[in-house]
Amino acid sequence: MRRVAKLSAACIATAALALTATACGSTSSENSSSTSPSSSSGGGKGGIKIGLAYDVGGRGDRSFNDSAARGADKAAKEFGGSIKELTAKSSDTEADREQRLTDLADAGYNPIVAVGFSYATSVDKVAPKFPKVSFGLIDSVATSKNVDSITFTEEQGSYLAGVAAALKTKKNHVGFIGGVDTPLIKKFEAGYVQGVKDTNPKVKVDVQYLTHGSDFSGFASPDKGKEAASGMLDAGADVIYAAAGSSGNGSIEAVSGVKGAWAIGVDSDQYNIPGLAKYKNSILTSMVKNVDVGVYDFIKSVNDGKPLTGQQNYSLAKGGVSLATSGGFIDDIQPKLDEAKKKIVDGTITVKTS
After folding, report:
1. Which of 59, 75, 144, 287 is in Cβ range 3.0-4.6 Å of 157 for a Cys bridge?
2. Cβ pair 320, 153 in contact under 8 A
């Protein structure tokens, strides 16, 4: 009887999650799917049930969220698990984020990965209510005991992107596009500008943010990214680095239309993203942020019965961030990039975060 009762409760919770995702779609989730494309539908007996709460853009953004998805997909395939995905809207309230995490926990998903700093407050509110569930938080640090905070030294990877931009510009004029002017994206800007200026102080750096404050649409508006990049190109910039989620896809498209101009991708190796294939010869490099590694490590720890907690910081020295070499466009400057990397790792260069 006890086993039947538990099974019934699980079924009710799962059904409630499905209903919530449908009924609240206009306020809390742009889309949801019961499983990811590459994971099994049921996960088999005892298979790990992974909950993914995406930031705006979700799976298919060709950048940040897709990197998280790759890590979860790998874990689900390796451990015979299943994935439930819910995606944020740019109009989300704190209540929406809390509800999304609660729905996943109520439905028996464990671990649950909150993809993005915007979930920081909600994770700290929801996690204590589910002490037996392991939560992963990307790009921010939580205080709850059952949370693994997965962070990266974005400024270090962005510094190398700035070195590459300064060495490749023909006009001594480059640009940076940020999705939203948050402290996280300011780290990308700070590292990039420092890398440019340390390499060639004469290079001008234009900086533009697509949205401000609590308006997170700047992470999911390719049209705004394209418009911003076009303006920079018209002003004379010939290398543009965008840290803007799927908005960066618009920036890459704009750059591809200008002969001799380069785009620098972010988070994923965007040269190798199928949806950006027609622009790949304009993608100089990408500042790869290995969110997939952090997500996989976390899920594996839960599967192994030894959940990671506290903060795991993935630095340049640990391979947490890097510059992609796909296309061979930075081969000629690789020695200088290697030199800059060595100086960051050994502490000769301290990269600013703001």
Report:
1. 287
2. yes
Core vs surface per residue 242-254: b (16+ CB within 10 A) or e: bbbbbbbbbbbbb
43, pLDDT greater than 80: no
Q: In the chain, pLDDT over 70 holds for what percent of residues?
A: 87
Rounded Cα–Cα distance for residues 173 and 206 (Å): 8
Domains belonging to the chain, first-starting first, are 2-152+292-314 (3.40.50.2300), 154-289+324-345 (3.40.50.2300)
Banded pLDDT at 90 (limits 50, 70, 90) = confident
**How far is 234 from 231, CA to CA, in rounded Å?**
5
Block residue for tokens 């999304």: 100
Q: Is the CB of residue 331 less than 8 Å from the CB of residue 325?
A: yes
Question: Is pLDDT of 252 > 90?
Answer: yes
Q: Specify whether the CB–CB gap between 77 and 39 falls below 8 A.
A: yes
Instruction: Determine the distance from the C-alpha atom of residue 138 to the mean position of all C-alpha atoms in its chain, rounded to a whole number.
Output: 8
In the block, residue with structure tokens 């996280």: 184
CA angle 354, 264, 275 (to 5 degrees): 125
Give pTM, 2 decimals. Answer: 0.84
Q: Are 179 and 149 in contact (CB under 8 A)?
A: no
Question: Alpha-carbon distance 275 to 140, whole Å?
Answer: 29
d(CA 116, CA 96): 14
The token pair that represents 323 in the structure block: 């510059």
Six-digit token string for 235: 């002003």
Positive or negative, the CA dihedral 318, 322, 326, 332 is negative
User: Is pLDDT above 80 for 188?
Assistant: yes
Output 214 or 13, whichever has higher pLDDT.
214
* Least confident segment among 8-12, 290-294, 319-323: 8-12
**Helices (H) and strands (E) in the chain — how many of each?**
10, 13
Tokens representing 205?
């750096």
